[in-house]
């Protein structure tokens, strides 16, 4: 059986980052519920490999691998800091390189961090239309966190943890067989190692 391919993308361009921590928290919850390991692409680290190219055919091996990981994901978690009322340019550039048909029908959990509660509107006014273009399934519950929701870059708010759990529950409704497959795989591996 094949693992569920879970990819988290943090659109931040500096580290440490609250956005990266938020995406990591969502990934951990998915991993816990589905029994599959996820991959976290932090653009603070990966953006230079992507910025070396304006088109996908100009990417080097490292950049191509990043784009292919996004395109082949079964589930995406996409987060960005709110910057000038939108998502980061680094995140935009990554999705400029993703094939327009590659994400059709794939579930996406949207997340963002910002300075005021009003910045949370960016998810619905900017991120949702982006994934609508790709015909991806942006889940209804998004996760938006303020600076006050963190303690030393770690998610500290019980309300944010609750939203993360709600989004992952929606994912389970969209991909109900994934958890069953993961549990069966774990039982099979346990029997083989015994």
From TrEMBL:
Enzyme Commission numbers on file: 1.5.1.39
Protein keywords: Flavoprotein, FMN, Oxidoreductase
Enzyme class, broadest EC rank: oxidoreductase
GO molecular function: FMN reductase [NAD(P)H] activity
Keyword Zinc: no
Organism, as annotated: Rhizobium mesoamericanum STM3625
Annotated protein name in UniProt: FMN reductase
NCBIfam families: FMN_reduc_MsuE
Family: Belongs to the SsuE family.
Domain NADPH-dependent FMN reductase-like span(s) in chain numbering: 5-148
Pfam families recorded: FMN_red (PF03358)
Domain of life (superkingdom): Bacteria
